[in-house]
Amino acid sequence: MSCIVSLLIVSLGYIFICSDNTTVKAHRAADTGHPDAKIYCNATIDDDFAPDSIIVVLDRNISGVNKYHDPDYFGNFEKAYIKDLTHVDNAASYVNEDFRQILEIGLTVSSKEYVLSVIDDLEHVEGVVSAEPNYIGQSGAVPSTSTNYENQWGVDGEPGVTGIHAREAWDFTTGSSSVRVGVIDTGIRAHVDLLPNLVPGVDYTGSGVRTMCLGTAHMWQALLALPG
After folding, report:
1. Is the Cα torsion angle 70, 75, 78, 81 positive or negative in sign?
2. Which is nearest to 71 in space by CA: 118, 133, 34, 120?
3. From CA 208, how far away is CA 102, in angstroms rounded?
4. What's this model's pTM, rounded to 2 decimal places?
5. Distance from C-alpha of 59 to C-alpha of 184, rounded to nearest angstrom
């Protein structure tokens, strides 16, 4: 009988040790991901940014799709709100090991000096990759004659598509009537911005068909505004 009791004690002890080791291993496995390198803010008071909000990027090891974070985690400063800018509607189908949450933290104090002070504190919070001001961007120039500009998917780029950054280029120039642009194609669609700038095409194949469309740089500008 004593032998049986001894065996039970040894077995239970072995099971306890194995269970404890499994727990330790599982805990360590969750912590093995290397933290992202911190990116420190170099903003100054002269930069153009909102005086009452901050943009925070979280480490991938603490990020989660639609994950809630206790406001106190980010420090004891007063928070007006915390908005998850990476929120997705169908979280169950979203899989991305490199996913990093981006949050907008609203402040109850409206002061650019205070924004920079809070950013300095946030940079010391474990799991915060970067904290930046909520910069105020300026829209680029859009020529007034660019009909259907908003329907042109390739101008500024869409998700998965690299645009030609026409808006940025138009901040410097919107074309010149002294520059002629040739478009090798079988024709173009009639458009209010194109028709006044067209000149006869060129037969560059010897087939008798003019397949090179010619026009000024203003025509090229107008091409960028065509839908589709």
Report:
1. negative
2. 118
3. 58
4. 0.51
5. 48
Digitized pLDDT (tens) for each residue of the chain, 228 residues in all: 554 445 444 444 443 333 333 222 222 223 446 788 999 999 999 999 999 999 999 998 999 989 999 999 999 999 999 999 999 887 777 777 778 999 999 999 999 999 999 999 999 999 999 999 999 876 666 666 566 666 666 666 665 566 777 777 777 777 777 777 766 666 666 677 777 777 666 666 666 666 555 555 444 444 444 443
Integer angstrom CA distances of residue 128 from 1, 49, 103, 125, 134: 60, 20, 10, 6, 16
Q: Are 49 and 135 in contact (CB under 8 A)?
A: yes
